[in-house]
Write a structure and sequence with these properties.
This protein is an alpha/beta fold. Helices cover 41% and strands 18% of the residues.
């Protein structure tokens, strides 16, 4: 197929682009490169790269000509960046998604895969693994915009028959991720012998999903018809303190783990517990993420830091 990836030079998008190129698809990447280019040289040479902003309708329409499917992954990322730029965050989400849908209609593209987030769940149902049926509780501009887009895309399925899969990613980590995110930040601090800085008590939990598993799930969902919201989660709950200790052990570091207060602007992002269910993903694809956090961290260390 011919496939457009908006935000395709970012962390998840670049890994997806590499996989799709290796699977012999014709890949177009649209990215403004404000956060750099995470596409490796070989993949970059094999895609049709277009530098542009997803908020520009003409650019999106031109980039998607002849495509069979759009992965819409363009977004403003990073807790601190999002917290400091709520208007831009929502503009990129809302205007960008509207442009992608319009371009799909103009160019007769029947399927969109949208990068949503587990952040939509907010503080809801913290005593159980989160399923797609849970009443969501978005607290941030980023999560609110993601939820709006899920509803907007679902409306286009109901009204115009556009196939849509909204992908609720749970704490994806892996190759090409920068230190705005917790896993690479802990690795860099640990290897440098610096303090590993943990917000709060470190007892807050997350469901860390390895990038290779995330990409595999995305690829398997490409053939799913209809309109779906799908968690992509590892179904394993790890507290942040345990993550720091795992990385210390893997890197053989003597770094101190330091507990610090989270900045006030991070308050709405700091939920105490989050673990997801991938039962619906398995129902649709017969696949679930399977890389344990320990395995994923060791892979990253051996590949990126040894």
């Amino acid at each position: 197929m011919k496939i457009l990836i908006t935000g395709g030079a970012g962390f998840i998008g670049s890994n997806l682009a590499k996989r799709l190129v290796n699977d012999q698809h014709d890949v177009v990447v649209l990215d403004n490169l404000l956060r750099g280019n995470k596409l490796d040289k070989d993949t970059f040479e094999k895609v049709n790269f277009i530098r542009g902003d997803v908020r520009d309708l003409d650019t999106v329409t031109e980039a998607s000509k002849g495509c069979d499917l759009i992965f819409h992954f363009a977004a403003v990322l990073g807790v601190d960046i999002v917290a400091d730029n709520p208007v831009e965050t929502m503009d990129v989400e809302v205007i960008g998604t509207r442009n992608v849908v319009y371009a799909a209609e103009v160019n007769n593209i029947k399927r969109i895969m949208y990068a949503s987030t587990s952040g939509i769940y907010g503080h809801s149902a913290i005593e159980n693994a989160l399923t797609e049926e849970v009443l969501v509780d978005p607290r941030t501009s980023y999560a609110m915009a993601k939820r709006y887009n899920e509803i907007y895309l679902a409306s286009h399925y109901e009204e115009k028959g556009l196939d849509v899969v909204s992908l609720r990613f749970f704490n994806v980590y892996g190759w090409n991720q920068d230190n705005r995110m917790v896993v690479p930040r802990f690795f860099e601090q640990s290897i440098a012998g610096e303090r590993i800085t943990v917000f709060g008590t470190g007892k807050q939990t997350r469901d860390f999903t390895f990038i290779d598993d995330t990409v595999e799930a995305c690829v398997r969902l490409m053939d799913v018809k209809g309109c779906h919201i799908v968690n992509i989660a590892n179904e394993a709950e790890w507290c942040i303190l345990d993550l720091a200790e795992q990385i210390k052990e893997i890197t053989n570091s003597d770094s101190e783990i330091a507990f610090i207060d989270a900045p006030k602007k991070r308050y709405d992002y700091e939920v105490e517990r989050r673990v997801g269910s991938s039962a619906k993903l398995f129902e649709l694809t017969k696949y679930k993420p399977e890389t344990t956090l320990t395995e994923g961290l060791r892979n990253i260390y051996q590949t990126n830091y040894k």
